[in-house]
Amino acid sequence: MFAQLAMPDAVLSHFIEREADDGCLTVEGSKQLDIFFVHPAQWRHDKISVAKNYVVRTPPFSGNKADAYVEYIALGELDSQLGANGDVVRQDYKLVLGNKYSLVARGNTPAAEVIDPSRWRIEGAPPEQWIALDAAIRYVSEVQQTATDPAIKANAEKTLSASVVSLN
Description:
The chain is of the alpha+beta class. The chain has one domain (8-132). The protein has helices at 8-23, 27-33, 133-146, 150-167; strands at residues 47-57, 65-79, 88-103, 112-124, 129-132. It has a five-stranded mixed sheet with strand order 4-3-2-1-5. A hairpin with a 7-residue loop joins strand 1 (47-57) and strand 2. The longest helix is centred in the last third of the chain and has 18 residues, at 150-167.
């Protein structure tokens, strides 16, 4: 996974890579992201931002707390109707060095507090989820193929057409 005492920017980078590669689009993917957080993330579920590039920055820190941020080029957002609508966005994160984290209840698995070796974890994160453009294209294509609602199919087609423009 990642080194136990990796620096905060390395932990945040690893999280962002996993999230951007569609980690937040499935229950299993979201479950795998839990290890990065002190407490389960409280993400919005009505929209997911789509980004082309990102950079992680960690200003100087001391002790067991660090502030960091991610800047990315936002291409738009996917909403529940698969509509897409896009600048450079900054998201702030707070990280702490500690040995405890919580798991959210999912299905038959109850919520739990876990204790393991100390490592940097994300304590505060924005509620917006985001994925990379290629993950968004995969997702919209899959939904378009299985959707029965004509409006969702049409929105997916428009979104896919717009994403081809974003690639160039």
